[in-house]
Amino acid sequence: xxxxxxxxxxxxxxxxxxxxxxxxxxxxxxxxxxxxxxxxxxxxxxxxxxxxxxxxxxxxxxxxxxxxxxxxxxxxxxxxxxxxxxxxxxxxxxxxxxxxxxxxxxxxxxxxxxxxxxxxxxxxxxxxxxxxxxxxxxxxxxxxxx
Length: 146
What we know:
Mean pLDDT: 87
Number of helices: 1
Strand content: over 45%
CATH class: Mainly Beta
CATH topology: Immunoglobulin-like
Structural class: mainly beta
Helix content: under 10%
Low-confidence stretches: none
Radius of gyration: 15 Å
Distance between the termini: 42 Å
């Protein structure tokens, strides 16, 4: 079984605005664990919070954590990370958001939302077994702040 297709959006925003970044998926079926890692420029965005989809909170998740941390191979970038797991697998309809990340726009410019796909930083699993990732599994996005 292939991993769900996961997309970060391409959006425009204004300085001082708080934006919502929906992380949308297709083919999210019978998933019991999610690890996601998204790189962004910390000079332009300040992380506020992450809101999980109802499917991820409704069944008493065994472990959920979303946070930002230094990384991405460049001191100007942070990584947003999500780790989630539970015993009962979940499913979603295509084009639904697995979560929504909120950022405050603190500087003008453009930052990429780039998936950190190395070393299992982004993967989906069923019963502890990672699902096959194919080309196009993770689609990058960006925000342009004016």
